[in-house]
Design goal:
By secondary structure, the chain is an alpha+beta fold. It contains 14 helices and 12 strands. It folds into 2 domains: 109 residues, Phosphorylase Kinase, domain 1 (2-Layer Sandwich), CATH 3.30.200; 226 residues, Transferase(Phosphotransferase), domain 1 (Orthogonal Bundle). The relative contact order is 0.11.
Amino acid sequence: MDSGIITPVTGGSLLGQGVFGCTFDPAPRCAGGPVFSRVSGLRAVGKVTYEDVTDELGIGKAIMALPLATAYFALPSKECKTETPIRDPDITDCKVVEEMPMGATFRTLIMPAAGEQLYKYGMDLRRLGENYLRIFIHLLEGACIYQDAGYVHNDIHMGNILVDERGVARYIDFGLAFRVEDVKVWADANLGSKFRPEYNWQAPEVHAWRLMTGGIRLADGVKQLQEKNPEYLQLERQFPSRKQCLDAIRGFMLSSKAVAREDGGAFIRAYGKRFDSWRIGLCMWFLWDDLLRSPSFMSTALYAKRDLVRSVISGLTEFDPRARLSVAAALLRLDPGNRLGSSSSSSSI
């Protein structure tokens, strides 16, 4: 009988890494040698980090307690002090090792292995074309679920979305998430205050707030955004009927000057959910752009829906959050009558 216990294999594969840790399959061993049972019926992978994991684990458990959570999220359910020296798997390729502060302890967050990262999945254009619309709708449904519970993911990019062999997409890494009702000041949202134009997954109004509060001219900041992220100029060219970035953000910030300059908390409470609309739209736009360059794509059923998909991407990537689609409104455009979109508290445009 299968006990569900997975024995770690020496030299686990490094699946991915970022600022806060590295993810390995199989998961590293706990100090003392315990191994891990399957998570949600799937084999376990482990995120190794020296950061405090309390908030991430707490938010992960809260998100996984939401209705239908296992279909939309793959988040840590437990953690342990990692066996040191770490032999299982070999962690020497993880950049976190080089940045580890003196005296810090590695910890491992355990989560289900729910597929491959979206950017890797998208390299197979045939498979992507077959599942693109399903993935898009599924991501919007998942966002409706966590937003209705009051959360903003705050860190959506193609490395934080996993897609399994059935084409089911799941969000991971809510370590930077915040609850809108808990935001009193800007710092409560884990957005940082320094202008970082290279962070293209952060919504334009987040950059604009930092510029305004930092005393940087908006025109200069938008120029830097365009230089660091050619996506801004590409979006302007692909959607010429929309306001261009500088005009859209200038109009928005002038209309919201009091909120933006004097009360970052009110700014986030008003527009925070639209931060995730931008991120989802950007991910799906990158993939859509790849599909359009594939000669075989023109003969697919998805190509016949290109105008609809394009309009939804445009709505999600509006530079002005007041004109940007909510996740529920985008979902209802792609899938009219969708139960999650129709019942969402975020369905207004």
